[in-house]
Amino acid sequence: MAASWQEYIDKRKQELQAVILAHYYQPGEIQELADFVGDSFQLARQAARTEARVIVFCGVSFMAESAKILNPEKMVILPEIQAGCPMADMVGAAALEELKSQHPGAAVVCYVNSSAQVKAASDICCTSANAVQVVTSIPKEQEIIFVPDRNLGAYVCEQTGRRMILWEGFCPVHDRITAADIEEQRRLHPGAPVVVHPECRPEVIRLADAVRSTAGILDYVRQSSLSEFIIGTEEGFLYSLQKNCPDKRFYVPQGHLQCQEMKMTSLEKLAWAMRELKHQVEVEENIRIKAQVTLERMLSIT
Ligand code: 13P
Ligand code: SF4
Fold this sequence. Notes:
- By secondary structure, the protein is α/β, with parallel strands linked by helices.
- The chain is built from 14 helices and 12 strands.
- It has helices at about 1-15, 30-35, 40-50, 60-70, 95-100, 115-120, 130-135, 150-160, 180-190, 200-205, 215-225, 240-245, 265-275, 285-300, and strands spanning about 20-25, 35-40, 55-60, 75, 105-110, 125, 145, 165, 195, 210, 230, 250.
């Protein structure tokens, strides 16, 4: 059955001159047939560069929206319209405007995990792969508002020595990992380095040997001569880690580190989406133009 879905998806991809982009947290079967698998930054770059006529985005809505913002003339399809990001939903444009009015002159840095409206109300975007670089690019004397991830924001403050006004958002998956979980894994796997995503809590980050974006974790593991790793991120990423490094072993801190939204895509849904050309992502043009500036500023410096 799965083989026939794959054949149909491949055939339809040729007909549509489409490219399939997938995030590392997507189900393994989706990663297998994607043209490109990456973290948020790599996918934004890929979306900015693609010559395909149709972009099929296997991820969550802010990712597909970013692809549309960068490619207004292309059709962008998100197979599961319900797949959102709870962290992105923690900040709205009206509340951000209110905060901005209390800090006139502040630069607003928005994590890519945010709506098109929030991007439009921000000055520059960042991902977990380039947040330190983006914040460093802002003049030292300028105040900074960072939305919506308080954990990534705190990590960037620590790395750059900058003080920022942090929004109180968080990723419900990464924020679930506790310092006790990490200590328990260290006890179970002595000698295995701890590599965590910067969406983790500060006390978890303090215990880590390395803090990396999703693609950065993969690079770290590939380059290491060690054979066992404790990984602090969404557990679906283990599929890619294991595929790329079959001789190495990976441990996640605890069960239930799964992003449900990322797991809403299935082969069947993808095939349906490509047949019906649904769901097409649209962004209101006046919002899109402003959000494009915010995204392109990031892409131009990283
Ligand atoms: P990256 O893809 O930037 O590592 O972020 C992880 C994430 O939570 C995506 O939603
Ligand atoms: Fe959002 Fe966290 Fe899921 Fe990423 S893993 S999409 S940040 S809820």
